[in-house]
Amino acid sequence: MCRRTKTIGNILMALGAGLLLSMLIPRSFWTVLLAVVLIALGWLISQQSD
Q: Which of 3, 13, 36, 48 could hold 42 in an S-S bridge, CB 3.0 to 4.6 Å?
């Protein structure tokens, strides 16, 4: 279970980072906010598994 939650956290962080990279010119505040939330959520989930 520990390894699974860390993997889920890493996937969420990767999705958030991908969104941020795709939005080099921010077109929408909500897209940037969603990317930041995904990165933060992924980081929290991966830290809980330790």
A: 13
Q: 1-50, pLDDT tens digit by residue? A: 577 888 888 888 888 888 777 766 666 777 778 888 888 888 888 887 55
Count the Cβ atoms, other than its own, within 10 Å of residue 1.
6
The length of the chain in residues reads 50
**Cα 46 to Cα 23, 25, 37, distances in angstroms:** 25, 29, 14
- The whole model's pTM is what? 0.61
C-beta neighbour count of 16 within 10 angstroms = 21
In whole angstroms, give the CA distance from residue 48 to residue 50.
Answer: 6
